[in-house]
Amino acid sequence: MPAAGQDVKPKLASQEDKVNVFLRAQNHGELVYKVKSSAPFQKVINAFCKSKGLNPQTARFLSDRGVRLTGSQSIDELDLDIEEDENGEPTIYIDVMHEQTGGGAVVDV
């Protein structure tokens, strides 16, 4: 039993449990995918980029702590904070950013 005022984080019972992966993109809105926790994160990356017409090489996926996520790990291995949505289902929130290279150039006039 947790102490008073202490948050209880839901845990997945097995690797076959499904989790909602809620992706929030800068200019592309929000999408939710329901995937097995043992599934490689690369599946989520590919599905999101295909649906939004993005190149997976230029999309950056960040955890709620700001850590960059790669597709080589499963959702279980990513050590993400699992929250419960309004229906009591386990949910992970991920921010999607578009890679920007370069910056302002100095031009001599």
CATH superfamily, please? Phosphatidylinositol 3-kinase Catalytic Subunit, Chain A, domain 1
End-to-end C-alpha gap: 69 Å
Assembly form of the protein? single chain
Structural class: mainly beta
Would you list the SSEs in sequence order as H and E?
A: EEHEEEE
Q: Radius of gyration in whole Å, from Cα?
A: 17 Å
CATH topology: Ubiquitin-like (UB roll)
Overall average pLDDT: 81
State the total count of DSSP E strands.
6
CATH architecture: Roll
Shape: elongated
Please work out how many helical segments DSSP would assign. Answer: 1
Number of separate structural domains: 1
Domain Rad60/SUMO-like: 20-81
Organism: Sphaerosporella brunnea
Protein name: Rad60/SUMO-like domain-containing protein
InterPro entries: Rad60/SUMO-like_dom, Ubiquitin-like_domsf
Explain how this protein is built.
The protein is mainly beta and 109 residues long. The chain has one domain: Phosphatidylinositol 3-kinase Catalytic Subunit, Chain A, domain 1 (Ubiquitin-like (UB roll), Roll), CATH 3.10.20.90. It contains one helix and six strands, in the order ββαββββ. The protein has one helix spanning 41-52, and strands spanning 18-25, 30-36, 59-62, 68-69, 83-84, 90-98. Strands 1, 2, 3, 4, 5 and 6 form a six-stranded mixed β-sheet that branches. The longest helix is centred in the middle third of the chain and has 12 residues, at 41-52. The radius of gyration is 17 Å and the shape is elongated. InterPro entries: Rad60/SUMO-like_dom, Ubiquitin-like_domsf. This is Rad60/SUMO-like domain-containing protein.
